[in-house]
User: Fold these one by one.
Assistant:
Number 1:
Amino acid sequence: VQLQASGGGLVQPGGSLRLSCAASGFTGDYYAIGWFRQAPGKEREVVSCISSSGSITWYGDSVKGRFSSSRDDAKKMVSLQMNSLKPEDTAVYYCATDRRQIGLYGYKCAKSQDEYDVWGQGTLVTVSS
């Protein structure tokens, strides 16, 4: 199982970016994805999660109303649309999955990084004028 995150870059405050997390190495459409970020000098924090069924999503208070997650099962990809970006959103963003949830039509939306055992390589988002 592999994940590859992409879509990061430099954006001005108030701008938008769309991150993508491409999954591979397994069959089936059901897999859960968690999005995390780590800012310079800070610990990694959870941003969002989507359950393996896709029916449950969750967003952290700092991004609620600005970020939204969606999935394209045909491409085996989960996207994180980030709007109204702020300088404090600057971080390396990671997507992660829990191999135990793969293939299960589930409703678990895990917020702890300990629940995930496969991680993408991270993509840098810089919000600056």
Number 2:
Amino acid sequence: QVQFVESGGALVQPGGSLRLSCAASGFTFRNYGLRWYRQAPGKERELVAHITTVGSTTYADSVKGRFTISRDNAKNTMYLQMNSLKPEDTAVYYCKALAFEIWGQGTQVTVSS
């Protein structure tokens, strides 16, 4: 079955960096567009970044220039490199393939001094 496992979240100081990973299984990974979402406490889940099957990317305005989405089709894994982190980036981060309404457990990112 389709499954996503997010990892890499941590407590980090403002200005710091993290790299999140999303390990996928149960489908032909290279054939699907993928997305990172996040949900902060008391807020709705929001789209952070998108990557197509050929590697084209788009970003939410709030993370543009700071976050980079990428994928390794050989490893069935997607990444989110997050630089210059801000307290407002604090959230649970989730990955998802466009075609499936299936979510992983998420990974917690906390940006605080």
